[in-house]
Structure formats: structure tokens, C-alpha cells
Amino acid sequence: MSSPEDLAEKFGELPDEVMVELQNMLRIYNIDAEDLFFKWEEYCLKMGEDIKLNLKNITTFKDDAREQFEIEMRAKSKSAQALAARGVQRTAKNTGDVFNMLDGLTPATPRSAGPSAAKRKLEKAGYETPLAERTSKLAVGSSPVGPGPGFRTPGAITSVPFRNRPDPGKVMEVYNPNIEIPELPLPGYPGYESRVQFVALIQAKNFGYKPMYQKLVAGSQVLDDRIEEYAVAIQKEHNIPNEDFCNPCSKLPEEVVVVGRIVTDVMESQKRSNEASLLLEASRGDGEGGRVRLDLSALKGYAFYPGMTVAFKAMNPTADKLLVKSVLTPPTYFGAGSKPSDMDEEFRKLAAGNFNVFIAAGPYTTDDNLDFEGFTELVDRIVETEPDAVFLSGPFIDTEHPKVKLGDFPVDMNNFSGYVLEDLFKEKITSQLNRITKSMVLLVPSTRDAVSKHVSFPQDRFQRKLLGLQSNVQLLTNPCMIALNEIQFGISSADILFHLNMQEVKASGKGIETNTFHRLANYVISSSHFYPLFPAPEASQVGYTTPVDLQWMRLAEFPGNIKPDVLILPSKLPGTVKVVNGVVTINPGFMSTTRTAGTYAFMTVEPPTKILEEENIVPPPDDEFTLKHRIYNRARVEIRRI
């Protein structure tokens, strides 16, 4: 068991009574100080607010840790597995199907009271349409097994009422505060049609692939291609001759250049990767797909994650361990630019004032209800201020929401279309979006969206007709790269920042970025890929499954390896905004956490007046001449509480 000194090293100076409680937790759960610190970090992220480690909070932390421990124990119980395999016999109470149509047809469905009872029911009902209360129990009664061992019912969740949410409207962070926010709505605002031009920079039709039909050979080829293409880019970036590249798994008595993919041999999903677990995997073409363990002792600092493509200067004298001497900097990718004539056109479009954008990400309601109060409040604000564009990313109807899992919501049988969850979307989401008439709304799905026909990442668009969405709503893929006027936006609803934070292996030192958000976002930008992590974390690590279709992961690459001007990466991590590698990178946070209301982002962008004045070249030197957009100088971004 870890000593008090180990706890102090991880948690810092603490009161004696708190230290005693932490030591008790180490003894009860038989873990070390590092594992306990990871559990504390996960608890802080789950609560969605800044928490101090005092005696009051340590009590709730202990309760949460005990609950998670019990969940893990139940999941591992052989008796529970055997019971789930057989199926649990349901009782007649609260388990009937709609209209008793399945009576006696399935082993777990009880028969009704008999023909005479059924006849009396029909005569009494007068052939009326069944009530919503009856059909709302469908999801519970139609599953013989019921929710999994780690599931919490909505009644077990205590959330903060929306009207009592902390600091509504408070600005949590500001980027470029020197830029003034214009009075909204803009005077004489004509609507988005004359101010916003939408261009998709990806081939959306390619996202309509058949999910869950992955060929192993095709998937492995994608990984190989990524390594080989990275080697070509590194060679061009650093001007390295061909003979300097070698197979990292062979005996290398002298320092050479090796390229491969970081992998880990940690098998237990509950354990984090560490320095000792890292290996380098070569491509099949250059190294027969072999793996070699890494020795990072010569590096003053490092930061890696599984799936990261890297180039090292290294030696391998024994062919058993690769001694890494240095890490070669990744290739340089350039940002977008526009011709002077196109910039002039944008300047004319924005004659009425700045380009204004709202950015929000789901979940949009707390775990104890499906009222979507935060979403309604956001739409109220949008209707009031009339921004040019609104980015909304899923999940909207979240498959991980307790009430959605149980089917614990009423169904309006008078307007029932035959699609329960789609009707819920239209009732809660579409009805609010229809109030927005002067702004372009851009919807990005999530793999956790119950109304998405596409279940894997990369993910196809929502279906407009099925969800009743109006014409000012643009349906985007996940991920997606688009241009609004000349500003290029990249967005993905996959929580890559949180996933990278869970899987990252680092040691502080020279050249290693200390700001966590900056470092994680740079992984995405420097890889020119919206989801460079592989494999995706398991549900036991992040709380839900991220279904990645490896065969189609090329669709998640930045088109043409061009960096966007603005990168939107919604995450469970606290909302923030930073300029990373020349890209304005925004995490708006989630609109709702499990317990309380969350945050969203607002951005206002000045017209390119200064760019045109400073670089007014008439005529341009050639047809390919472009001006950089420099959004990092023109944009003000705020992270706000709803």
C-alpha cells in the first residue's frame, strides 16, 4: 500500500482528516496512490465543476468510488453472467407488450388473464387507442434481461434544478477580449441567406458506407498506409536520404531513422498505459508489421498515445529494445487561404457587421429528465440575437441517457409515426429548431445518437425527412470540414480530447507542452486527423463505446492536409479556447452534465478589413496567390454558462 508521502506527492498538502480518509480508501480497495488519483480526476470530470479536496467532498467521492467498485464486482460475477445468459423471467406486472400481442409467443412474455378477461377489456375500452402511459412501458417490458449491471436508474441521480443552476450566463473564458462584441441582432440584419455561403469541403456521399462490415485486411492496410505516408512526409520535411531509414525490429548498432506507430501491451482495460508498456509497430512493407519495445530513458521529455505515428532517431543493438535518442518533429501542414477577390467578396457580405456564431454540444439535458431546458434556453438566446450560424453537435437523443435506455418517456399515440425515438427528437429538438429562421443551423450527429441510422465513426448525416428538419438546417457528417464564406471550420462530435487524455503517456521535460488542452489539441492538428487514437478506449474506461470503423478512417483525415481556421472539438473536459498551431481550437463543453447545466461557446469574427489593407496587391503576382485568413487575429471567442 502507498505511504502518506506518495499521497502527498499526488494530491499535494491535505488536512489530516482528508489524508486519513484517502489512506482508508487505499486499504479498502487495495490500490496505490496513482490509481486513487486517477479515480479522483475521473470524479472531478464527472461532476463537471471545480471541486476542492476537503472533508465534505471526500465523503461524496468515497460514495462514488464504492458505487463504481460494486458495479465492477457485479459485472465480474459469474452468477450474474449465468443469469443474464439464461434471461430473467419477468413477472406479469409492468411487463406486458403493447396490446398483449406477444402473449405466450415468447418464453419471457406471460399470458394474459384468459379469453374472457381479454374480451371484457376490449368491451370496456370500446376499441379506444391505448394510453401513452401504457406504451411508455414498452422498452422495459420487451427486454427479458433488463438493464446491465452497471446501469443507474434515473431516480438514483440527484441533479441541480435548471432554475437553480450556478452562475447562468457567466463568461468562463475569453479569447481576444480586445475585440468588441457587436450589438445583436445587427441593425437591419437581413438573415443568413445574403451573408453566409456554405461549401462542404468533404465528399459527404462517401460517408454512406455500410457500417459494421469491416474487412480485416482493409483495416490493416489503412494503418500501414498511415505509417508509410508519414515516412514520406518526414523524409521531405527533414531532407533525409533513403538509406537512413531502417526496420526498427532489426539489429541496429548505429543511430538510424525509424518510423512506426505507437502501440501498448496493456491488456487490462482498467489500467492506464505507461512508459514500460509502449512499443513501436512497423509497417508490413518496411518491417513486416513487427513490434519492438521502446527505451525512452535518453529523452528529457516525451508525450505519446496509442496509434500515434512517429519518427525516431534510435539504435537497437540487441534487436530486443529500441533505444530512442530523439523524436523528429512532425511534418508542417499549412492553413487555408483565399484569393484577394474572394476576400473582397467576404468583406462586402459582412458590410452589416461581424460574422457571429453560436457553438454547442450535447448531451442537452441532465440524466434525471428529458425536459431539455438548457437547449430551450439556448434557442431562446439564438432567436433573440440572430447570429449568422449555429453549430449543434450530438448526442441529441442520447443512447446513454437512463430514461432513453429504459424507454421511460411518454409516447403521443395521436401523433405516432411508427418511430418512437424519432418522434421524441421532433418533439424536443425539431420543435425548437423550427423557431430559428434567420440563422443557418448546422447539425453534427454523434455515435451516441439514438436517431442516427449510422452507428460507427466516421458517421453519415441525419435524415432530414424522418426528423422533420426545415431548409435552413444543414446536415453535416461526423467529422466534417466546411467553409462558411472564406472561414474553414472543422468539427467532430467524437470526444477525442477526453479519450487522448485517458490514453496519453507523457513525461514532462524540454519541449513538452504543459497545458493539457493545448497538447491534446495539437495531437489532432499535427496528425491532420480528427481521431488519430487507435484503438478507441473501451466502455469500462470512458463510460460508453466508441465504434470506430477502421476501414473507413481515411474519411476522418483533414482534406488535402489543410488545417482549418477554426477547429471545434466538444469534450467532457472543461470548456476552453486556445490558438493551437495557428488554429483557433474550441471546446464549448457539454450543454449538460449528468447533474447540472453546462456551457456553450460564442464567436464573433471581424471582416477582413485589415488583411485587405495590409496586403492590397493589385494585380496579384499570379493566379495562385492567396491571403491567409488569420482568424486568430480577427475572432473573439467566449465560453459561457447556459
UniProtKB/TrEMBL annotation:
Q: Where is this region: Disordered?
A: 139-163
**MF terms (GO), sorted A to Z:** DNA binding; DNA-directed DNA polymerase activity
Where is this chain's protein located in or outside the cell?
Answer: Nucleus
Q: Which residues form the DNA polymerase alpha subunit B OB domain?
A: 220-328
Q: Which InterPro entries match?
A: DNA_pol_a/d/e_bsu, DNA_pol_alpha_bsu, OB_DPOA2
Look up keyword Glycoprotein and say if it applies: no
Keywords of the record, alphabetical order, are: DNA replication, DNA-directed DNA polymerase, Nucleotidyltransferase, Nucleus, Transferase
- Choose one Gene Ontology CC annotation of this protein and give it: alpha DNA polymerase:primase complex
Protein family (similarity comment): Belongs to the DNA polymerase alpha subunit B family.
UniProt-recorded name of the protein: DNA polymerase alpha subunit B
Instruction: State the species of origin.
Output: Orbilia oligospora (Nematode-trapping fungus)
Per the UniProt record, the lineage of the source organism begins with: Eukaryota, Fungi, Dikarya, Ascomycota, Pezizomycotina
